[in-house]
């Protein structure tokens, strides 16, 4: 009897052990997946930060180049972006040397040409990028990058800023515009050449105000009354 009970207990312990091992394996797989997802999201955030920092370097190098007194030059070092000593007053094109989010250091790869200066920067990380699309047209070559070393943020003369403004479409005026500085006379309508005969009417001439009519004359004066009475007396004497 005891042997039967011990055998049953051994089987139960064996099944329990299997279930525990299965649960541990499932938990390990889930944690591994969560860890991989977290690393992927962290890398994507670092890529966004690298794009922002690289653009700041590019704009600062462009500001240094375009504001050069006399002949335009690129900076000989990144420190010149922090303090441009070519002017009497302090001028800063960049507020600080950023950390490379991929390596965690301030050491950057430099895009240079002999005798020209620093034209741009790039990361020193050999890691393969995750981002493969939706780049700005300026950085279209990043889609084929094999590592972050190929993400080169360089300034070329004549380039616009990070948000390049496009000229807005303006409607073209119809007909011939009214020349500026020549006011249109009041009371007259401008007629474009070739638009037809001139149908304008001449401005009405002011009519002279009529004088007082006979009906509105006042009573005769005293001299006129005496003359009339004298004439009547002479006519009566003739008769």
Written overview of the protein:
With 239 residues, the protein is mainly alpha-helical. It has a domain at 44-154. It is 36% helix and 6% strand. It has 3 helices and 3 strands. It has helices at residues 2-66, 79-82, 222-238; strands at residues 109-113, 117-122, 152-154. A 3-stranded antiparallel beta sheet has the order 1-2-3. β1 (109-113) and β2 (117-122) form a beta hairpin. It is flat and about 170 Å long. 13% of the residues are buried.
What attributes does this structure have?
flat, 3 strands, mainly alpha
Shape: flat
Task: Report the end-to-end length measured between terminal Cα atoms.
Answer: 189 Å
Cα-based radius of gyration, to the nearest Å: 50 Å
Please give the largest β-sheet: 3 strands, antiparallel
The total count of strands amounts to 3
Order of helices and strands: HHEEEH
Name the poorly predicted regions.
162-179, 181-185, 191-199, 209-223
Please sum up the structure shown.
36% of the residues lie in helices and 6% in strands. It has 239 residues and is mostly helical. The protein has a domain of 111 residues.
List the helices and strands and how they pair.
Blueprint: H1 2-66, H2 79-82, E1 109-113, E2 117-122, E3 152-154, H3 222-238
Antiparallel strand pairs: 1-2, 2-3
